[in-house]
Give the backbone structure.
Amino acid sequence: MYGTAEFPDWGDPNSPASLHLSNEYIEKALEQTQVPNLVTAVLADYRGFDTMFETAVIFCAGLACFLLLRDFGEKKERFYRHTPTGVILHVKDGKKTLTVGKEFEHMDKDWVPSDLIIKTVCRILIPFIQIFALYVVAHGDFSPGGGFQGGVIFGSSLILLAISYDLKTLVKRIKEKVLGIYAALGVLIYVGIAALCMPMGGNFLDYSKLAPLVPGDPHHIRALGMLGVEIGVGIAVTAVMAIIYINIVSQGRHDEGL
Amino acid sequence: MYWPIDLIVLTFVIFLAIAAISVKDLLATAILFGAYSFMMCLLWAVMGAVDVAFTEASVGAGVSTVFFVAAVFRTSRRTKD
Amino acid sequence: MTELLTLIVAKYNYWLYVILMMIGLYAMIAKNNLIKKLVGMSIFQTAIILFYVSIGYKTDATLPIIQNAHGAHGVVIHAADYINPLPHVLMLTAIVVSVATFGVAMALAVRIYQRYQTLEEDELRMRLSED
């Protein structure tokens, strides 16, 4: 209990956490990197190694979730519903596949009549959410935000599509293989940009040596390197959020959902 | 920074945390957990950590609550303690 | 005794963070249901992040985004005007890792329920010893 007497006071500018290194970050970050948002500057440039492994951790979490739950067994029973009259066909044997005409639709086990209000509102809202997510990623340098936040918002727009419509709608639009490729692509973009600095003559994550490749102002090269890296993080996080949701809510079978 | 806001939100957070682990219905736990996450986000925004607050708002009060409700949907909803 | 009390009251915010951490730890250890343990783990993680973020606060300082960045090329930036951004960066990584762990733990809970039809720890122990 007497240990808490030694803690610094609330809001003290001279506390040990604020003395040594962070002053240098605050004062030098604008002239070295041309990025006003100090948190993004430290996260993607001065401490870029940590962010690379954090992206790898997110990718591993998506991979673990897929490996734990994915169930490739064949479907056991199917339900078809005749739309004009409401009669339900229950096919018990999973091996026979019926080709049904236009008036039948394939339905889940607990079927609720689809709500028109929810479907229409979500269909209007989802493109705006995605544009907002892209805005957050692109403005990570100037306002609070960055790659990870934008990626989560984009992923949650995909989850909204799965909740308001069917899970099958989402799986049909964005197949599982494509999601896996996107997740790996995000990590590869990050490592690729970092590794590209090495043949140009710098260390592993030294963005300032990329200047001959990019047309434009050589002072902004560190900000552009940061932007590329944040895009990689955003793509990886989007795919992983969608993968984890699809696998948890359908117990790996990818047929029914919430 | 106005210290009563800090103290009020902190005590509210502690009450929410105690409530989230003592209710018997798992869906109520999910909602209380989302509310706890959102109050934490407010606390960090008041302290000036806007990036951390943005991340916690999108992750904790968004995606994490959805994962929780999806898992409760696939397992049982009542619990004995 | 009174000097202990004044000591506690002066640093009250640290005591409240410690209380929150202990609530999370209690839930991880003493609750039977697996999902309640997960909620306790998440409470513990966010309480630690709160503690770290509160260290970096400076009185009368503004957000860690440099103002008037477009026109200023010769302006000297004083470090005392901005909040310390270093704990925020580390805690951003901590939040990301926390949500990844939460997702994988939920997947594990669903799998356990598929196999054993229960999520209570004492029933699980009984069924595991029967297997």
